[in-house]
Amino acid sequence: MKIVGFFIVFVLPGSLGFSQSGTGSVIPTAESGTIHSIVWGLLGIAVVTLLVLGMRKFLLFKNRALAQESLRYREKNDELVQANERLNTIYGELQKAYQDFGELLERFESIVEVLSKVGNNELDEKSFFGLFLGAALKIIPIANYGTVSLIMDHEWRFIAVEGYDGERLMVLRLPEENIRHIYEVTVVDALYDRYERDIDESVRDPLKEAVKPFKQSLLTPFIVDGKFYGTMALDIARENEATFTDGMKKVMTAFSKIASAFLAFKRQSVSQGKFQKNIILSLVRALEYYDRYTRGHSERVARIASLLAEAAGLDRESIRKIYWASLVHDVGKIYVPQLILNKAGKLTEEEFEEIRKHPGKSYEIIKETEGMDEIAQMVRHHHERWDGTGYPDRFIAEEIPISSRIITIADAYDAMTSERPYRKSIRKASVIEEFRRTSGTQFDPRLTNLFIGIISRTDFQE
Ligand SMILES: [Fe+2]
Question: Are residues 254 and 155 in the same domain?
Answer without folding.
Answer: yes
